[in-house]
Amino acid sequence: MNEENDHLTIQQIAKLAGVSIATVSRALNDRPGISRQTKERIQRIVTRSGYRPSMFARNMRSQQAKMIGVIVSDAANDYFKDITRAIQDQATQNDYTVLIMNSDEDPFKERNAIKMLRNYNVAGLIIASTDETMDYQKLLGNTPTVFFDRAPSSDRPQFDTLLVNNEFGAKLAVEELIRQGSSKIGMIASGVRTSGPERVTGYKQALAEYQIPVDNHLLYISDVQQVKAMPYVRKLLIDQKCDAIFAADVSLLKVVLDELKLLNRTDIKVATFDNTAWFNYFKQPVISVKQPTEKIGHDAVEALVKRIEDPTRQAKVRRLSVQLIRR
To answer: Can you give the residue ranges of the HTH lacI-type domain (predicted)?
Structure first.
């Protein structure tokens, strides 16, 4: 066959074979309702053309797609990078492929991603939610789903969910700041539900443990895109004269470090929730709370596979331990 024909579409194959598109589909998927002679004629055309059916199209037709859809709220964040890598590794161990989509902390994008992945007939979904109040039961239908990092709002668990001990981890970080001599500790908290309020609670618990009054002027809740974070950090450093700042996640930490550099402040102690290897190379020591990202990714896949195999099993919310890294 000529080189110009070596990427035929299914419509062109049907025309060359003198049959319908449905008949070509039956031949390609080895389904009944087609004669042996017709099937062989179609297969000869397919072999000569080098035609390869779309994996997505095949998944949409199949009732047993071996693909997992993953939706993260910030693909640029190292935390989500580490988890998606672990998801991919564990999915491979279970003979699944992975399709990853980024919602950019935008509920509209998340809804579209869910609809698109369901159209691909993925076997299941793993989601870091952007809006826990979303009607996930309606949006997900009967698609097996595991959530991580953020829990959908509900009086009782409706979906398998993996979280970490946010309160305890935040408490550990703030207590370490106090032990290192800080007495006026500001906090920039995330607007993300679940982890955001829980880390604020841990911050307050640490202050209470050391009999330091909670001053609401030292606590700011940023938006999820961190647009408000920079002026909040300046208020803590310049107006409130804090001697330490606890940033609730790495994205907020970057804002804090940028401001410290701009103001040439080397006297401020810093702590954050999350840990990355590059913290070890900073001149500015960063106390951090390490999350078990590899285990989160591994356990999310295992929970999803169990849910796929047994859709009626009771939904569970699990919390994983965190580790304080002193610097």
So the answer is: 8-62
Rounded to whole angstroms, the Cα distance separating 173 from 277 reads 17
Of 3.40.50.2300, 1.10.260.40, 3.90.190.10, 3.40.228.10, which CATH number belongs to 3-53?
1.10.260.40
Alpha-carbon span 25 to 316, nearest angstrom: 41
Where does 166-290 sit in CATH, by number? Answer: 3.40.50.2300
Q: What is the pTM of this model?
A: 0.79
Give the pLDDT confidence of 132-179 residue by residue, as tens digits: 778 998 999 999 999 999 988 776 778 999 999 999 999 999 999 999
The conformation of residue 212, written as its DSSP 8-state character, comes to P
Asked if 268 contacts 219 with a C-beta cutoff of 8 angstroms, the reply is no
Spans of all domains in the chain: 3-53, 67-164+293-319, 166-290
Both tokens of 327, joined, read 């610097």
**In terms of DSSP bridges, do strands 124-127 and 160-164 run parallel, antiparallel, or are they unpaired?**
unpaired
